[in-house]
Amino acid sequence: MTTLERIAVVGAGAWGTALANAAARAGRSVTLIARAEAIAAALRTSRQSARLAGAQLDERVAVSAATAEAAAADAVLLVVPAQAMREAAITLAGAIRPGTPVIACAKGIERGTHRFMTEVIAESAAAAVPAVLSGPSFAVDVARGLPTAVTLAARERRTAEALARALGSASFRPYHTTDVRGVEIGGAAKNVLAIAAGIVAGRGLGASAAAALTTRGFAELMRFGKAYGAKSETLTGLSGLGDLILTCSTAQSRNFSLGIAIGKGERPAPGGDKLAEGAFTASVLIDMAMEKRVDMPVAAAVAAVLDEKLSVDGAIEALLTRPLKAE
Predict the structure, then answer these.
(1) Beta pairing partners, 175
(2) Rounded to whole angstroms, what are the CA distances from 259 to 6, 52, 209, 288, 313?
């Protein structure tokens, strides 16, 4: 594959802005495409995303509201929420050239269809070559150029390598793999488990409980991943265990913050400016686990609490009274 010099980033939220900065630091020609001209105009003037306080948009990044700009791109980063991925991919389909890599940068599974993000792209933009980027990364860290490592997966090794080279820099290090499914599962499942960790913190159950919850949650992630064809080395890598550790340990994580609020007895909306993808993925994850007969008690408890089928105390009791067994 030839060098990927021109990068389009579709989605000018916090993560889109951060990835545009990362691509610019890698020496690429970058266009950040916002969903509306008003947003694009504000970004051109302020050079700062309303959703990324304190981080400036790199001066080398061009800003547009025209999806047609993606026609000139050698690769596209599709940075929209998981449940909006299909609509965005359909809109993009008419703009991109055949064979253009389109990288899903959302961590979730589509409700209703049970499709992973690369599957959504493949179905909605037939000319695209689907790929996925995931890993332990906060937008503000990436935007500011703080050291970050992620995983970038595509079905063909040469594509994955070319994308990693195009986006990699001294401060942003993508490790490449062909295990697309493993990367997608790690990102989607860890969000649900981060909500569980947040509930433990919000309920004040202590550091020991948090460690136990994260460890047992990771065992669930491994079981689910293996059932759906993921490689164990991917699940124990950056996009699995690495991302789980990050999102289960700090209120910077939107999913962890949602869990804290629920643990304190609040019922915040999971959407808005601080989207918690795990809230939309939980029930889908459990449906898919049941299809493969994968036992996921922690994730199931989160889904039940979110769907108001179980109280927080009821969920905790259910987990604590499960039969004792070998690890």
Answers:
(1) 151
(2) 39, 22, 14, 22, 13
Strands 129-134 and 148-154: antiparallel
Q: Which residues of the chain are modeled with pLDDT < 70?
A: 1-2, 271-274, 324, 326
Angle of helix 297-306 versus helix 180-202 axis, rounded to 10:
60
pTM, whole model, 2 decimals?
0.94
What is d(CA 201, CA 196) in angstroms, rounded to the nearest whole number? 9
Residue 150's H or E segment, with its range, is strand 148-154
Q: Which of 107, 190, 264, 292 is catalytic?
A: 190
User: Are 166 and 272 within 8 A, CB to CB?
Assistant: no
The per-residue pLDDT for range 146-179, each reduced to its tens digit, is 999 999 999 999 999 999 999 999 999 999 999 9
CA distance 116 to 291: 15
Single-letter residue type at 261: A
Which residues, 6+ apart, have CB-to-CB distance to 325 below 8 Å? none
Closest listed residue to residue 248, CA positions, set 155, 132, 142, 136: 136
Task: Give the separation between CA 230 and CA 41, rounded to whole angstroms.
Answer: 42
Convert the pLDDT of each residue in 58-99 to its tens digit.
999 999 999 999 999 999 999 999 999 999 999 999 999 999
Residue 33 in contact with residue 70, Cβ under 8 Å? yes
Token couple for 314:
């009821």
Mind giving me the DSSP string for 202-255? HTT--HHHHHHHHHHHHHHHHHHHHHTT--HHHHTSIIIIIHHHHHTS-TTSHH
With H, G, I as helix, E, B as strand and everything else as coil, classify residue 29.
Answer: strand
In one letter, which amino acid is 136?
Answer: P
Residue 157, H or E segment: helix 157-167
CA dihedral over 254, 108, 208, 232, signed as positive or negative: negative
Q: Identify whether 190 is a catalytic site residue.
A: yes
Q: In what order do the strands lie in the sheet with 172-177?
A: 61-64, 29-33, 6-10, 75-78, 101-104, 129-134, 148-154, 172-177
